[in-house]
Design brief:
Elements (H helix, E strand, L loop, with lengths): L4 H10 L11 E5 L14 H12 L6 E3 L2 E8 L2 E8 L6 H12 L6 E7 L7 E4 L8 H10 L6 E5 L8 H5 L8 H21 L1 H8 L5
């Protein structure tokens, strides 16, 4: 979905345009649903990853722009914008598309982090491109950005009962699962650092091989 110059002009006039004095080189979007009642849901593991990453860098999501919570961090000389859409999962592309258009961030410089039923709990998987795999948040981003060459980090939440997918993804991680979640937060953080500094191929080679 193209972003019009009139829309950008309105943002400039309202003061929404300037987040900082530079353009972020990379954008990491963690997907989830806004609100306290969804905070511990398996479907919100993308938010959890970004919260963990921001905390590790001493950053806070203290800016609200483009229907998203934002913060900025820096890995060595690489500047990165972290984004948590507040549009609910199925409309994630709206926030990601507007931000990417404003900062002229290419699809290959956008990393999307989200849950995956088809991966066992605690597993992570990086891909440079591909379909949404039925994930509506990723599907929204692909449609909005106009292509599927978007790096993504999928976080396994398992599928214990194929007939209960909705209840599973919108359910909270159990106390028994929390140790696996804590471990995956750290591994996902490290994988994202490698992607920012060394690219998607290096990140896939390093982390996918260890997830077999």
């Amino acid at each position: 979905m193209p972003i019009s110059t009139k829309w950008l002009a309105r943002k400039l006039q309202r003061g929404d345009a300037v987040l900082d004095s530079y353009k972020p080189l990379k954008l990491i979007a963690g997907l989830g649903n806004p609100g306290v009642k969804y905070a511990r849901n398996r479907h919100n593991v993308g938010f959890m990853i970004l919260n963990h990453l921001a905390h590790a860098e001493g950053a806070e999501f203290n800016r609200q722009r483009f229907n998203a919570q934002l913060t900025e961090i820096k890995f060595d000389d690489e500047r990165v914008l972290l984004l948590k859409p507040q549009t609910y999962m199925n409309l994630s592309g709206s926030a990601v598309g507007k931000l990417a258009a404003f900062y002229r961030i290419s699809r290959t410089d956008v990393m999307v982090v989200y849950d995956d039923l088809d991966l066992p709990l605690g597993k992570i998987r990086l891909r440079a491109n591909g379909s949404s795999g039925g994930h509506h948040g990723m599907e929204s981003i692909i449609n909005t950005l106009g292509g599927s060459d978007i790096p993504r980090l999928r976080i396994g939440i398992g599928r214990p009962d194929p007939d209960q997918d909705v209840g599973h993804v919108l359910g909270n991680f159990s106390d028994e699962e929390q140790s696996s979640v804590d471990d995956v937060l750290k591994r996902a953080e490290n994988a994202l650092r490698v992607w920012v500094k060394e690219g998607i191929v290096r990140a896939m080679n390093q982390y996918n091989a260890n997830e077999q």
